[in-house]
Amino acid sequence: MTSYHIYKIRLIVGMVLLLSIHLVANADPKEKDCAKTLEEAKAAYEEGRINDVPNILNDCMDVFEDNKVRKGNFDRNQKIEAYRLLSLTYLYLNEEDNAEKTLLKLLKLEPEYRLKNNEPSEFKNLYGNFRVRPVLAFGGKGGGNIMRFNVSKTFSTNNPQSSTETYTSGVGFQIGGAVELPLNKKLGLFLETYFSGRNYTLNNELFGYASTNYEETQSWIEIPLGVRYNLGDKYNFSGHLKPYVFAGVSTGLLLNASTVVIRRDRVSSEELREVTGTAIPVTNLRNSLNISALFGAGVELKQGRGYLVLDVRYYMGLMNAVNAQQRYSINELIFKYGHIDNDFKINNIAISVGYMYPIYKPKKIR
Predict the structure, then answer these.
(1) pLDDT for 66
(2) Which of 126, 179, 299, 348 suits a disulfide with 315, CB 3.0-4.6 Å?
(3) pTM, whole model, 2 decimals?
(4) Which domains does the chain possess?
């Protein structure tokens, strides 16, 4: 490397150092001192110099009023504390309008602001004048379900009085979305939509020598609508579990249903003959609409801005699941497998987990 190149490198390094020193020397002192400014404002408030607090905080606050636009240098947490301090200051100066405007700015910045344990009663009363619950919450849920059957009338190719039918549910699934509309701290409305898969097995003995294994798979759209009741204060924004109960009605729309049947005939004491085939569509054997009463309970856990949710619910079917007019319409089921549908209602137990995200729009309500 020549002496000329060394000279150029030294020159560049020197210029960089001079520029850095210049930038540091001319840095906006407000940016460095806003943390100190907040402490000075707190000290003035505690010492009773209430009138000084707004002026002390002014240079570090955002200004977007009276045709003035200026971005302050408080970070988010400092800004929240500054708004709180200003609200208290205006309360003690009997400037209630300014106190309300400042608290509204705080709540727009941090809708889930938690009152401190030692908060002055005047500030608590002011806070109580604002809507702090979300205007809406939305999210997704998913989980598993099992079916339960309420047979009201038995039909059979065998003697119905000697029926040995056994219904066994498989484990299904559901996945979907939810919207909640809080009404107050305790009550809220919800509307959900799920795509649900269900399945069950029906085992039966026929004619003293045959047994059948009937496996049906169903796909549904479920639309629950109901009201929930919070057992605690959901909107104190603590990290504790928030239990709730709910009830409503669910509309079920059957998309499709199919079955695979196996019939086993005892030819002799040592020989079984198995009869089966491909899947048989049975959607037309089912009523496409099912209305259910809905009951359940759940818990929420604060996680970030939203809530992790776990709920358990019971759907009590109110309608016959079988389309009686089509009961005898599939000859293959009757003559090949000896199967005729009973009249039954479908109940369902479901467990879901999910995440709900709230939308806030704080405003003064009184």
Answers:
(1) 53
(2) 348
(3) 0.80
(4) 29-128 (no CATH), 136-364 (2.40.160.20)
